[in-house]
Design brief:
Blueprint: H1 17-53, E1 62-68, E2 71-79, E3 86-90, H2 94-100
Antiparallel strand pairs: 1-2, 2-3
């Protein structure tokens, strides 16, 4: 079989605009993500310091409401341990969990 000719030095491959656009989009998104990661780390540190100052833990979370996608959502903010990250999760009401239990049915 004949060998395939390699690329000649100094000759650029043909331009494919779709590849250039996709690569540029990826580069821009990666830059945004890196910037957001730095901002998120600053917010994480600030929240952690405040939760630590006010002694909010997983057993005693700070419960608050906020709007998310046009709906009011109840959230918990807490520290697992003082040295660890702060967490923000949807609030789970222990009373509501009891209500959600399935009752046995008689057949």
């Amino acid at each position: 079989m004949p060998e395939k000719q390699g690329r000649l030095p100094g000759v650029l491959p043909k331009q494919i605009p779709a590849i250039e656009d996709a690569a540029d989009t990826l580069r821009k998104l990666r830059s945004k993500r890196q910037k957001l990661a730095a901002e998120e780390e600053e917010a994480q540190q600030k929240l952690r310091d405040l939760l630590k100052e006010h002694r909010f833990t997983a057993k005693r979370p700070y419960i608050f409401e906020t709007e998310e996608d046009g709906e009011l959502v109840k959230l918990d903010a807490f520290l697992e341990k003082p040295e660890e990250r702060a967490y923000v999760r949807k609030h789970k009401d222990p009373k509501a969990e009891d209500d959600d239990e399935e009752l046995p049915t008689s057949e």
